[in-house]
């Protein structure tokens, strides 16, 4: 059986190839003295002072300093676990700390010193990464996952930025990996993306002092921005969604912070193998795969930046035009005041946030919580006197609003199905109808406890004959549509009023969003699309958005009519009709939920982020070309050092290999330069 020997040779071969490709065979120091991270494939688009930064970059004027920022992303992968097999003594790493995985001994020593520390619970949403950092299942595991630091814009692993996790995503682990990855960097601004950034950074600088001296980091004279990736941001509380948003932060372009997540798809298939490996073999294997990933990303930067810059230029022009159109309709005095307010907040986040609406409208979820708490007070005040053992008045009316929405959707879908529907479509519709009927029967039974007359009224209603097989037309007889002299208990009327107000505001907010999206779809179609195929595809998107507009309109109209019936029509307006499309024609209606100042702030932010993205991409493309030229020169220097005149085979091999590596870098640079020349030329002329 030669399998074990063969796998050992594979591991040695990978290690030797990594050393060779990083030029360790061309330097005089021994392999044991290889600096940490020296074998990593660096991201050529990230700022590396002394390698790809222009002269005098550190003295750039303040308005342009953001172009020299380093973007980092932090994340953890709990698929890359390792079972408790073998040991460091039996299976040491061949290249401990020379590439992407941190040096094991100092890392473990630091963690052992802080193993018993507990983390503060999240003050934002209930983030599992924070609250369950000490409770991750770890029996039989030496590592529960892997923490990594990536460059956020190009999704390449940072040198010495990866390490094992022993339980969950603990701050001690992530602090060590973060400062290990930026050790030695002279960049003055660092933008960091982390899905729990709002919690992690709060006491970060107080935790820095406990790091080992070789990771000591002085933040003075540097700027740090901590943000939450765009996809993860919606899980945070409203305050965090504004304060930690990439969209509202100047100097970050269109970075989304999610690149590190996309990279897991490449490494996850390796998990089934690495979880059974010893500690050293696993680290060496991950180093090899991360190196392969980084190299593939490097050679793909040509197409990557070409695609990005084309999109950024187009979107920058479009959003710039939208902003200009909006500002043409805003008085100059107000526009100046709003601009000053935004700029003040961008310089100091402790100032009032202009992206927060000053008009707070109640939402349906907030109202449901308020009604549920009122139910709880009633139950505590009158224990044992509730007419129904399971359903309170608040939950009865709240459920009715959901059932109404389902009825509206089913009515629309049944009409849109047409006369020639397929059997599969009819079956799906019938299943929905059956499900709605069951829910209605359950709700009717609860309703009869509080309002016995509703059963009789329903049996004699105009829809009674058809509602058996068409539950979407069944009458619910809520307080707002119950005929006199029948009446619910008094509290039901105030409950429905509160819930209808929240429902109306939610419907208006969704309608506003869909109207704005519809206007953009029309403009995009007229300006950019040609030919039947493209226009047909776009028309389907427009039709789908139109269906949403009509649905939100119906929901609002139902809420409005209910409020009128309840006797509070003086507190709302009926400014919505079935054919509403463009927001410009219905500003009075939109003002109910839309603070124009906030909309202008967001439009300005979108235009500025796309404009920044163009500049940032052009700067990054320039850095890539400078880095490749620097790296080619570095290999030529190694060749000159290896040339002793001995003319033996080893020396000839070293010279040939070094020249080949230099030529490879220049070949890649030439290919990239040809792709990017139109965009780099435009940046030089502007």
Automatic annotation (TrEMBL):
Enumerate the residue ranges of region (Disordered): 344-363
Recorded protein name is CxC2-like cysteine cluster KDZ transposase-associated domain-containing protein
Source species, please?
Answer: Coniophora puteana (strain RWD-64-598)
Q: Name one Pfam family in it.
A: KDZ
InterPro entries cross-referenced by the UniProt entry = KDZ
């Amino acid at each position: 059986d030669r399998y074990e020997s063969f796998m050992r040779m594979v591991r040695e071969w990978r290690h030797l190839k990594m050393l060779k490709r990083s030029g360790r065979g061309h330097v005089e120091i021994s392999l044991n003295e290889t600096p940490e991270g020296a074998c990593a494939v660096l991201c050529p688009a990230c700022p590396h002072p002394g390698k790809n930064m222009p002269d005098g970059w550190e003295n750039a004027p303040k308005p342009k300093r953001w172009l020299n920022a380093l973007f980092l992303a932090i994340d953890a992968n709990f698929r890359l676990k390792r079972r408790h097999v073998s040991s460091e003594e039996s299976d040491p790493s061949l290249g401990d700390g020379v590439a992407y995985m941190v040096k094991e001994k100092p890392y473990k020593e630091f963690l052992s010193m802080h193993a018993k520390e507990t983390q503060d619970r999240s003050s934002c949403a209930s983030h599992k990464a924070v609250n369950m950092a000490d409770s991750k299942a770890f029996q039989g595991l030496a590592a529960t996952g892997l923490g990594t630091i990536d460059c956020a814009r190009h999704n390449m692993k940072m040198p010495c930025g990866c390490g094992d996790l022993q339980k969950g995503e603990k701050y001690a682990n992530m602090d060590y990996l973060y400062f290990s990855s930026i050790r030695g960097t002279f960049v003055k601004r660092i933008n960091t993306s982390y899905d729990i950034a709002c919690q992690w950074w709060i006491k970060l600088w107080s935790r820095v002092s406990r790091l080992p001296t070789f990771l000591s980091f002085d933040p003075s004279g540097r700027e740090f921005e901590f943000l939450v990736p765009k996809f993860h941001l919606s899980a945070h509380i409203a305050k965090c969604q504004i304060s930690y948003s990439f969209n509202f932060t100047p100097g970050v372009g269109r970075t989304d912070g999610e690149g590190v997540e996309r990279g897991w798809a490449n490494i996850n298939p390796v998990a089934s193998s690495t979880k059974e490996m010893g500690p050293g073999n696993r680290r060496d294997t991950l180093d090899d795969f991360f190196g392969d990933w980084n190299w593939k990303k490097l050679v793909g930067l040509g197409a990557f930046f070409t695609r990005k810059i084309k999109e950024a230029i187009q979107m920058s022009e479009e959003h710039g035009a939208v902003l200009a159109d909006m500002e043409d309709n805003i008085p100059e005095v107000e526009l100046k005041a709003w601009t000053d307010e935004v700029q003040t907040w961008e310089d100091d986040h402790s100032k009032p946030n202009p992206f927060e609406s000053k008009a707070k409208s109640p939402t349906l979820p907030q109202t449901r919580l308020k009604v549920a708490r009122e139910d709880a007070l009633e139950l505590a005040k009158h224990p044992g006197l509730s007419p129904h053992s399971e359903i309170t008045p608040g939950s009865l009316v709240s459920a009715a609003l959901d059932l109404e929405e389902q009825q509206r959707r089913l009515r629309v879908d049944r009409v849109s199905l047409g006369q020639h529907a397929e059997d599969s479509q009819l079956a799906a519709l019938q299943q929905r109808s059956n499900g709605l009927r069951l829910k209605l029967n359950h709700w009717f039974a609860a309703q009869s406890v509080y309002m016995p007359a509703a059963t009789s009224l329903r049996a004699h209603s105009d829809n009674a004959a058809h509602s058996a097989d068409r539950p979407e037309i069944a009458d619910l007889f809520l307080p707002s549509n119950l005929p006199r002299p029948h009446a619910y208990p008094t509290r039901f009327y105030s409950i429905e009023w509160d819930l209808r107000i929240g429902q109306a505001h939610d419907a208006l907010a969704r309608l506003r969003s869909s109207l704005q999206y519809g206007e953009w779809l029309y403009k995009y179609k007229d300006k950019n699309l040609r030919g039947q195929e493209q226009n047909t595809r776009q028309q389907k998107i427009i039709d789908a958005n139109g269906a949403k507009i009509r649905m939100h309109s119906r929901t609002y109209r139902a809420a409005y009519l209910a409020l009128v019936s309840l006797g509070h029509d003086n507190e709302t307006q009926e400014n919505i009709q079935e054919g509403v499309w463009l927001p410009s024609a219905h500003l009075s209606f939109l003002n109910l939920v839309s603070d124009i100042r906030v909309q202008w702030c967001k439009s300005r932010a979108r235009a500025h982020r796309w404009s920044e993205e163009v500049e940032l991409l052009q700067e990054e493309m320039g850095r890539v070309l400078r880095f490749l030229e620097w790296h080619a020169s570095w290999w030529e220097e190694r060749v000159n050092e290896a040339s002793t005149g001995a003319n033996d085979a080893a020396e000839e091999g070293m010279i040939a290999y070094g020249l080949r590596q230099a030529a490879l870098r220049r070949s890649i640079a030439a290919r990239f330069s040809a792709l990017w020349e139109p965009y780099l030329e435009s940046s030089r002329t502007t």
